[in-house]
Amino acid sequence: MAIPGKTPDPAPEAAEAHGAGLDRYDIAILRELQQDARLSNAELASRIGLSAAPTWRRVRWLEEQGYITGYRAEIDRRKIGLGVLAFVRIDADRNTVEATRLLEDAIRRLPEVISCHYISGSGTFELQVMATDLDAFSRFALDALMALPHVKDVHTSFSLGEVKSGGALPLAHLRAAAR
Fold first, then answer.
1. Is position 148 within any domain?
2. Which of 18, 124, 126, 146 is the most buried (most CB within 10 A)?
3. Contact call for residues 77 and 132 (beta carbons, < 8 A)
4. What is the domain count for the chain?
5. What is the pTM of this model?
6. Is residue 173, in this structure, part of any structural domain at all?
7. pLDDT in tens, 124-170
8. Which of 133, 156, 16 is nearest to 87 (CA)?
């Protein structure tokens, strides 16, 4: 969907990487929705200084272009019994394309793994894992993590307290580009 006054990006991958094509209203929408994704369109429009119809079109455009990838509720993990947050580094025994894909697919199927990243330096993947307690994590590590295909070693660190979590993405670099 085209937004009046906005031209499609000729190279969307490069533009998306740097937020090219976003103006101050788009950035304001992203900022406000990161703070409260439950805002009504009317309230969002009021906060960013546009009327409802163009605000709605811009939100739809941001969704269609992949800037907004979804909406979800943030849940207090402790209130639902997930007292353990572990950071797990997995060392793979092979780094072939096929072995890596098998390992990735297996990791994606584990609901206890809430994020997984390729990492530089020592190790292949860094996972964030949730468990109810240390006994549950221990069972998960032995039964699930060590059973993953092509895993050579598993190294775990436990969170002793959260300083910051669920934070909004920084957008200041986009403001400078939108000027």
1. yes
2. 124
3. no
4. 2
5. 0.78
6. no
7. 899 999 999 999 999 999 999 999 999 999 999 999 999 988 788 88
8. 156
Widest CA span of the chain, in angstroms? Answer: 57
Q: Which tokens go with 98?
A: 């096929």
Number of CB atoms found within 10 A of residue 140's CB: 21
Amino acid letter for position 22: L
Give 175's pLDDT tier (boundaries 50, 70, 90): confident
- What CA–CA distance (Å, rounded) separates 86 from 100? 22
The contacts of residue 68 (CB under 8 Å, 6+ apart) are: 30, 33, 59, 62
Output the CA torsion sign for 88, 68, 42, 24.
Answer: positive
3-class DSSP state for residue 92?
strand
At 45-59, the pLDDT tens digits run: 999 999 999 999 999
User: Which range marks the domain in which residue 47 is found?
Assistant: 12-72
pLDDT digits (tens, 9 = 90+) for 69-115: 999 989 999 999 999 999 999 998 877 889 989 999 999 999 999 99
DSSP helix/strand/coil, 166? coil
